[in-house]
Every structure is written in C-alpha cells, then in structure tokens.
Amino acid sequence: QQRRLPASALYTWVQVDEVQDLNPLQWAIIEGIQAPGAHGVYLGDSEQAIFSFMGASTASLTRLAAGCRLHRLYRNFRSPSYLLNVFVRYAQGNLAPPWPQPPVAARRRRAARGDCELIVVEGTAREERLALLRLLQTRRQRARRARQTAFLLRDNQTAEAGYVEDRLGGF
C-alpha cells in the first residue's frame, strides 16, 4: 500500500549523487519525498554504474536526461593526465563511449617510474582473475598497497563476485 507524505514533510530541493546506481525502489522513494514542482539536482555517470545486480539501470539516466537540463562535466579532477589518457584510449578502442568529447585531466602530469603499469591478459575471465591474483601477491605489489592501486578489468563480474577480496582477505 502506497502512502503519501504530508505536504509539510516534502522537500522543495532534492539533490542526489550517484544516480546511475539507484534501483526502482530508491527512485520511488526520491519521487515520493519531492514536493510538486521541486527543484532536483541529479549527479551521475553511466560509465561508473556498478549496481546492475541490485536492479539499477543506466536507462534511468537516459529517462532523467530527457526531462532535465543536462550539464556535462569534462574536466577530471580525480586522475592525473597520464592515467586518464590510458583510460580514454582504452575506452575509445574497446567500449565506444558516447562522449561528445573525451574527458581531460585538470592536473597535467607525467608518470613517475612505477606509477602506471599496463598488463594485458589475453584469455578467459578466469585467466584474467588468476593473473590479477598473481600480481597482487608479488612482493613489489604488497609493498605498494599503502598507495592507491586501480585495476581495469573486462567486466564487473570479478568485482561483484568479490573474487579478489575472498581470496586475499581484503586489500
């Protein structure tokens, strides 16, 4: 049974981050707390969607964009240029991203020795997981755990299954 909140409990301003990961129930809650004519600010990135296994769908971003004024952000403040350039080249070569223009790094920086490593695994998803485990168990990589480490895998299955965490007991 659906209940409506009293008008005094509704919000005239709603701001939601990571909307690419919302499932239909979460969307219904957001819609249920908004006053008629509420101003909504929704932030999301379809390329960061990781909760499809919980019912989230990037189609909701497409529906949302159809009824909103859309602002695209192209400047990346999170990653240095050398790393972002690797991601952009990978995406353009393998994923056909729907970008009107590729992102650019706010920090232009060359990689220092050991900052960026590209290891390509030609084979099955299982072989990719095993190669990742072997890399994580090397002495050099264990010593680097205090630093940030990122992995670009062929799909979300490895991350969603918690395979690496289960095998290594967490990072």
Question: What topology does this entry show?
Answer:
Layout: E1 11-16, H1 24-33, E2 34-42, H2 59-66, E3 75-76, H3 81-94, E4 104-105, H4 125-136, H5 139-143, H6 157-161, H7 163-168
Parallel strand pairs: 1-2, 3-4
* Rg from Cα: 20 Å
Largest sheet: 2 strands, parallel
Give the spatial strand order of the biggest sheet. Answer: 1-2
Counted by DSSP, the helix tally is 7
**What is the general shape?**
elongated
Class derived from helix and strand content: alpha/beta
The overall pLDDT, averaged over residues, is 80
Order of helices and strands: EHEHEHEHHHH
Helical content band: 25-40%
Cα separation of the termini: 44 Å
Residue fraction in strands: 5-15%
Regions with little confidence, pLDDT below 50 for 5+ residues? none
What's the total count of β strands?
Answer: 4
Task: Tag the structure with descriptive keywords.
elongated; 7 helices; 171 residues; two-stranded parallel sheet; alpha/beta; 4 strands; 11% strand; single chain
What does this structure look like?
With 171 residues, the protein is α/β, with parallel strands linked by helices. The chain has seven helices and four strands. The strands form two sheets. A two-stranded parallel sheet has the order 1-2. A two-stranded parallel sheet has the order 3-4. The protein starts with 10 loop residues before the first strand and ends with a helix.
